[in-house]
Write a structure and sequence with these properties.
The chain is an all-alpha fold. The protein has helices spanning 3-10, 14-23, 41-55, 60-69, 74-107, 114-127, and strands at 30-31, 37-38. It folds into 2 domains: 3-69, Multidrug-efflux Transporter Regulator, Chain: A, Domain 2 (Orthogonal Bundle), CATH 1.10.1660.10; 74-127. It contains 6 helices and 2 strands; from the N terminus they run ααββαααα. A two-stranded antiparallel sheet has the order 1-2. The longest helix has 34 residues, at 74-107. The protein is elongated and about 70 Å long. The two termini are 22 Å apart.
């Protein structure tokens, strides 16, 4: 598989894959006679591990250290991802209910207590983060 295909299937940019290659996180399994990066199934697994560890909040340097010491088997990564998703779902449901209650108060021209606004802001700041690829 060429780098563009891996990027498309992996939901990352070619630039991200070049960055991972430069860091030694994800080296292509082979090169074509023309010098193009070629990726194999084990490279897909490695990309999955990198993405999962990023979502756990690890830095790329930490991921590199972890993967250099030993490979992280998928049978350990996937259950952790499921647990993380379960927590995210619970947070989304909680936040949705809170926002619906606040929207109803606003529709009734009721004032939402400042404490509820602050608690909502804190919850979002603590639980709804965005991970950058690079």
């Amino acid at each position: 598989m060429l780098i563009g295909e891996l990027a498309r299937h992996g939901g990352v940019t070619v630039r991200t894959l070049h960055h991972y290659d430069a860091l030694g996180l994800l080296k292509p399994g082979a090169r074509s006679p023309g010098g193009y990066r070629l990726y194999h199934q084990n490279d897909l697994v490695r990309l999955h591990q990198i993405q999962a560890l990023r979502r756990f909040g690890l830095t790329l340097a930490d991921i590199g250290d972890l993967l250099a010491r030993h490979t992280l088997p998928l049978h350990e990564v996937i259950p952790r991802q499921i647990a993380m998703l379960d927590k995210q779902l619970a947070n989304i449901v909680f936040l949705r209910r809170r926002l619906l209650r606040m929207a109803e108060q606003l529709q009734r021209d009721e004032e939402t207590p400042i404490g509820e606004w602050l608690a909502t802001l804190e919850f979002v700041a603590d639980n709804v983060g965005v991970n950058d690829d690079v």
